[in-house]
Amino acid sequence: MSLAFLVTTLIVVATPGTGVVYTLSAGLSHGRRASLVAAVGCTLGIVPHMVATITGLAALLHASAVAFQVLKYLGVAYLLYMAWTMLRSDAAIIVETRTTARPPAGRVIMSGVLINLLNPKLTMFFVAFLPQFVSAGEPDSLPRMLELSAIFMLLTLVVFAAYGTFAAGVRNHVISRPRVMTWIGRVFAGSFVALGAKLALTQQ
Question: Which end of the chain is more exposed for a tag (fewer CB within 10 A), N or C?
């Protein structure tokens, strides 16, 4: 494993995107536990892209314009749905201190998985990224790609958990200010809309 791989991975993972926005909103909405569960969900959402890349399905996705467009617009639709769910309540981000207000862990994980699953850019990234760190004709290329993918997922989990823990840490300072929470919710909703628009304009 090279230093270049670690640095590049950290830059990619730490750059705010849909997963980061979702993890931050989970931390602010429901606390540290929910943010960590969201981080796990987003990390699990990487697995299908990793499998697609290693098995060659990503090459098919790259070659088929129709498949790429279908997956892309499913991702756009889901991002817009996430934005709508944040705006449909008066407070935009629903913050409750009652334990009953916390969504089931399974639902949080599923949302995190879908956010990354319906993002064809992630598969394209793996197609362009992993081969750079695997020598052509290397006899152990498959184990090597699995190793690098596992490291990518571990760093994703750590970085996202750090984002979520930070959000949960400042949660108590903002939940008593409904107007602040409303604007935070609007910012997150706007972020999902912007990310959806960016994804919609993405070309193969």
Answer: N
Is residue 131 within 8 Å of residue 61, measured between CB atoms? Answer: no
Distance between CA atoms of residues 27 and 64, nearest Å? 38
What gap in Å lies between CA 190 and CA 202, rounded to an integer?
18
Residue 172 lies in a domain: yes
| pLDDT per residue rounded down to tens, the chain (204 residues) | 577 788 878 877 887 778 888 898 888 888 889 899 999 999 998 888 888 777 765 565 566 667 667 767 776 786 787 677 767 654 444 444 444 456 788 888 988 888 888 776 677 677 667 766 766 555 676 788 788 889 989 999 999 999 999 888 887 776 666 666 666 667 767 777 886 787 677 665
User: Based on the structure, what is the number of domains in the chain?
Assistant: 1
Q: Does residue 71 sit within a domain?
A: yes
d(CA 153, CA 58): 18
Which amino acid is it at 70? V
